[in-house]
Amino acid sequence: MSRKQSILRTIVDRNVERQLVKEFLMDNTKGSGFGGLTIKRTPSGTSVKILAERPGRVIGRKGKIINDLQKRLEEEFDLHNPGLSVVGFEDLDPKEDPTLNAQVMANKIASALERGWYYRRAGASAAVNIMESGARGVIVTVAGKLTGSRNRTQKFILGHVKYCGETALEFMDKGYSVAIKKLGTIGVTVQIMRKGIKLPHEISVFSEEELRIRSEQETTEVEVVEEASE
Predict the structure, then answer these.
(1) Which of 51, 79, 117, 122 is the most exposed place for a label (fewest CB within 10 A)?
(2) Which DSSP category does 32 fall into?
(3) Own/partner pairs, 70-79, CB within 8 angstroms, 24+ separation
(4) Phi, psi at residue 147, to the nearest 5°?
């Protein structure tokens, strides 16, 4: 095997490993508002950090749940000296809204479907809540045996969204979850155009007075920085 093939194989293996770890943690932290995870490898070990709406549900009484999960990560996934930790949305930013996290909302919709919510009610209400929280756009997709034995796909689209290209990859957050029903499984995908972003084609037009004020402000900021450096 060439060096290039070896590198590609390593990248693929690590992406597969990351997805398996994500599915494992999602299954074992239900009810915590799982919002994603980050995995960092260092010479001393592997750091796995969970983002959760309710961190206490992941930690457990006296840390029992998180310690058990950490042991299972080492045994079942052969991670080198794994260190599992959990942070809440308020720890990252007090203004961070879990409603704008695609994975959290996908889990909530799947949970609502399992509790007996009609798929139209679950999908439409989630889309409205996301938009009311400040998102620029949202696509909620539910697919599977929604009302009978035949598979169906239903989408709920609000606001400004992108379907493909670099803008979709850069500005659309995506989350996926599965609801298990008597008729079969239903896949739930949530894609959110993030709050406050500026798309490449969007421009701002300023008057001459506004340009003069902005130029004076920038000049003042530069002078302050230069004085501080001296």
Answers:
(1) 117
(2) S
(3) 72/24, 72/28, 73/21, 73/24, 73/48, 76/24, 77/17, 77/20, 77/21, 77/24, 79/21, 79/46, 79/48
(4) -130, -5
pLDDT in tens, the chain (230 residues): 576 667 667 667 778 888 888 888 888 888 888 888 888 888 888 888 888 888 888 888 888 898 998 888 888 887 778 888 888 887 766 667 889 999 999 999 999 999 999 999 999 999 999 999 999 999 999 999 888 778 899 999 999 888 887 777 888 899 999 999 888 899 999 999 988 777 766 677 777 777 777 777 766 654 544 454 44
- Name 178's bridge partners: 187
**Residue 189 shares a structural domain with residue 108:** yes
Domain co-membership, 86 together with 113: no
Asked if 118 and 187 sit in the same domain, the reply is yes
Domain count within the chain: 2
Whether the full predicted model's pTM is greater than 0.70, yes or no, is yes
